[in-house]
Amino acid sequence: AQTIHQWPVAEIKAVGSPLSLGCTIKGKSSPNLYWYWQATGGTLQQLFYSITVGQVESVVQLNLSASRPKDDQFILSTEKLLLSHSGFYLCAWSLTGQNTLYFGAGTRLSVL
Amino acid sequence: GQQVQQSPASLVLQEGENAELQCNFSSTATRLQWFYQRPGGSLVSLLYNPSGTKHTGRLTSTTVTKERRSSLHISSSQTTDSGTYFCAVGYKLTFGTGTSLLVDP
Questions:
Q1: Spatial separation of the C-alpha atoms in residues B58 and B61, rounded to whole Å
Q2: What mean pLDDT value characterizes chain B?
Q3: DSSP string, A1-56
Q4: Which residue has the higher pLDDT, B55 or A97?
Q5: Domains in chain A: boundaries
Q6: Percent of chain B, pLDDT > 90?
Q7: What number of C-beta contacts closer than 8 Å exist between A and B?
Q8: Domain coordinates of chain B in residue numbers?
Q9: Do A90 and A36 form a contact (C-beta atoms < 8 A)?
Q10: Candidate from A46, A49, A103 with C-beta closest to B43
Q11: Which residues of A touch B (CB under 8 A)?
């Protein structure tokens, strides 16, 4: 069975500090991976997607970056957090040829 | 790009009542998925339904691709159905605005 693990569960960070959020998929090779962001009470916005190791496409510019260093790992990061980065970050996966999207438990980020 | 609107924005029901949620989108799409999010939680996939009618448990989704709309029917609602329902449409699965459902006991 596929499992998706996100870390950390929650973060409280200061404006201007760096951030790294992680996502690991186990149980399937070469998944398509996605980062989504959700403001409190809002809808979900796709930030990045990756269909293979080393390749990441940016969908929305929010002063964030993403990398896929391994087939099963997706990292979201920034060197300087803004207040507007607060929210709920969700990693998701799908398989090529199978259209259903599955989400991780998410990371709640508060930037103060 | 794809625009996705959901209605109503919020809905309050008594337990046992049925709910009808709507999803309208701007461009025809070959991917459409309904999700549920409980307060403070992650998203759970409910149904993948780009066309036609699909059922699972108390949920029925009907998508009319040509008319660029989909609905999610929840029968005999329960308090545990409370939360936000999203549809996501298109190749990039653009998310709608969501419907917040509250089911009172």
A1: 10
A2: 95
A3: --EEEEE-SEEEE-TT--EEEEEEEESSSS-EEEEEEE-TTS-EEEEEEEEETTEE
A4: B55
A5: 3-111
A6: 90
A7: 42
A8: 4-104
A9: yes
A10: A103
A11: 36, 43-46, 49, 59, 90, 92, 99-106
Nearest to B11 by CA among B104, B100, B105, B75: B100
Mean pLDDT of B64-72: 96
Distance between A94 CA and the closest CA of chain B, angstroms = 11
Sort out which chain B residues have CB atoms less than 8 A from A105's CB and list them: 41-42
Count, residues in chain B: 105
Distance from CA of B93 to the nearest CA of A (A): 9
CATH of domain A3-111: 2.60.40.10
Nearest to A105 among B35, B42, B98 (CB): B42
On whether the B4-104 domain is CATH 2.60.40.10, my answer is: yes
SS3 A84: helix
> In the prediction, which pLDDT does B96 show?
96
pLDDT of residue A99: 77
CB crowding B41-71: b at 16 or more within 10 Å, else e: ebbeebbbbbeeebeeeebbbebeeeebbbb
Q: State in Å, rounded, how far the first CA of chain A is from the last one.
A: 38
Residue pLDDT, tens place only, B70-91: 999 999 999 999 999 999 998 8
